Amino acid sequence: MADQAFVTLATNDSYARGAMVLGKSLRNHKTSKKLVALIGPQISEPCQAVLKLIFDEVKVVDVLDSGDVAHLAMMNRPDLGVTFTKLHCWTLTHYSKCVFMDADTLVLSNIDDLFEREELSAAPDPGWPDCFNSGVFVFCPSLETHGKLLQYCTEHGSFDGGDQGVLNGFFSTWATADISKHLPFIYNLSSIAIYTYLPAFKQFGSNAKVVHFLGKTKPWSYTYDAKAKQFKGGVSEASAHPTFLLDWWTLFSSAVVPMLQEQYGDQPFHSGCVKDESSTSAAEETESQMSSEDRKKKWEQGQADYMGMDSFDNIKKKLDSFLK
Predict the structure, then answer these.
(1) Residue 298 and residue 294: Cα distance in Å, rounded?
(2) Residue 217 near residue 234 (C-beta atoms within 8 A)
(3) What is the pTM of this model?
(4) Residue ranges covered by each domain of the chain
(5) Which residues contact 71 (CB under 8 A, 6 or more apart)?
(6) Average pLDDT for residues 187-207, to the nearest whole number?
(7) Mean pLDDT score of the chain, rounded to an integer?
(8) What is the distance between the alpha carbons of residues 293 and 28, in angstroms, rounded to a whole number?
(9) Distant-in-sequence, close-in-space partners of 158: CB < 8 Å, separation ≥ 6
(10) Averaged over 277-296, what is the pLDDT?
């Protein structure tokens, strides 16, 4: 429908790449809805050009910053202040209903059925399930609601310093008032939550419709060897299930990088796609930097380096060596 849209936000070129992959994933799964990207004024011209090729509407908005250093410091995420810019999405009043999706999400199947839900529908946050995660939510644009949200920010601030604290405070009855506004977790599957309840992921993970790459390490934080299908950089943080990370990079390298190359032309830019020219593997580099005690703690926390030194192949090599 022309008056319904998926909306995302990018305030820098890194998140713009995430938005490009999100937009492509929505297109690949045959969405019938419009695609809208809200972007900060500092997004480079080549990235803006690619976004305009993928999205139906690209709108430059002012970057709002909560300035709430204390609460953001509690979360060790000072970068989340600009997520207040997300509140601009309520000004898109030429649409009757929208689904907001963070730029670090990836669509795995058609999710147009979300538009059957009402405002404010969202999935529980894995860190505190009585709060919803604001990475995916259904809303109805309204200047009145936008004004009330800004007023709420002024009067109450945010309990976490970011948009999620504001939205949970404003839509405070989400946890108790109407179960139909609780989206199933498969519409906003946290890549971190996979490791906190692995049996559930094994049981239900194949039904996932949207994966959300929560945490500091984003898919674009890695470098990727497309030929070897291997990642480098940040692999020990276990921030994403390797299959989902591979899905993201496969789409980015095949569909988005060629578009970026065309727009950048002769200008140099780092795509993150590299050829592995090093004789030392990422696993060996990480292993040499991490003590056995640190590694043990990572395992106990469910953060094994499954793409590097704790991969099946490396464990098998260790066992073979030991048995010999």
Answers:
(1) 6
(2) yes
(3) 0.81
(4) 4-195, 222-323
(5) 157, 158, 159, 160, 161, 165
(6) 86
(7) 84
(8) 44
(9) 66, 68, 71, 84, 164, 165, 166, 169
(10) 49
